[in-house]
Write a structure and sequence with these properties.
Blueprint: E1 2-4, E2 13-18, H1 21-37, E3 42-50, E4 59-60, E5 63-74, E6 80-96, E7 103-109, H2 119-139, H3 156-159, H4 162-165, H5 172-180, H6 184-203
Parallel strand pairs: 1-3
Antiparallel strand pairs: 2-6, 3-4, 3-5, 5-6, 6-7
InterPro entries: Lon_prtase_N, Lon_prtase_N_sf, PUA-like_sf
Organism: Gordonia prachuapensis
Protein name: LON peptidase substrate-binding domain-containing protein
Length: about 210
């Protein structure tokens, strides 16, 4: 397990630098298991509720995301640079001692399924997101998201609404709320609140 100051979402890229001895050991163990099973290495990422990334002693959220290790660049002194991608979600059922590194017993969580009744809500959310980006571009171009992203319906097929969320400038708490949603309808509710907050910030110049 790798506690971080942000919530990793499925489908989202995650660059990491590994320098603490405990996480060097975790990386070696993950890669060792991957070599034995001829599969990609994985570890869990959870958002820190209180505390810091370095040194331990933090309080962690229970719902997190698997990080799939895509590339590793190791240095001679043992440090490493990783590129990872968020995969499926999990819930921690029991935290184990942080020796030699954070570990937990988990259960995998099914991804929210887009039901026919969700389609109108998703289309409405897409229109709201497009209107928000257009308003940013018109009223505060210096604050516009890089590249002025589009929000296409076919992008939600693989990773659901997480595909749109990764393009929005939202904080860890809202990302965690979205990660913990059990239904697409709940995710839409969270993202509606997010859009309301972002729109208010733009309009009031915060």
């Amino acid at each position: 397990m790798f506690p971080l100051g942000t919530a990793l979402l499925p489908g989202e890229p995650l660059p990491l630098r590994i320098f603490e001895p405990r996480y060097r050991q975790m990386l070696a163990d993950c890669l060792g298991r991957a070599e034995k099973s001829d599969a990609a290495g994985y570890f869990g990422v959870v958002l820190i509720a209180r505390g810091h990334e370095v040194g331990g002693g933090d309080v962690r959220h229970q719902v997190g995301t698997f990080a799939r290790i895509d590339n590793v660049l190791r240095q001679a002194d043992g440090r490493a640079a990783l590129t990872c991608t968020g995969a499926g979600r999990f819930r921690v059922t029991e935290w184990l001692p942080d020796d030699p590194y954070p570990r937990a017993i988990i259960e995998e969580l099914a991804e929210p399924v887009i039901e026919p009744a969700d389609h109108p809500k998703i289309l409405e959310l897409r229109d709201r997101l497009g209107a928000f980006v257009a308003e940013v571009a018109e009223t505060r171009p210096e604050a516009a998201p890089a590249g002025l992203p589009d929000f296409e319906v076919d992008e939600v097929v693989e990773h659901g609404l997480f595909a749109w969320t990764t393009r929005l400038p939202i904080g860890p708490a809202d990302r965690q709320r979205l990660l913990e949603c059990e239904t697409v309808a709940d995710q839409v509710t969270v993202l509606d609140d997010v859009v309301d907050g972002l729109t208010a910030m733009i309009r009031f110049g915060r």
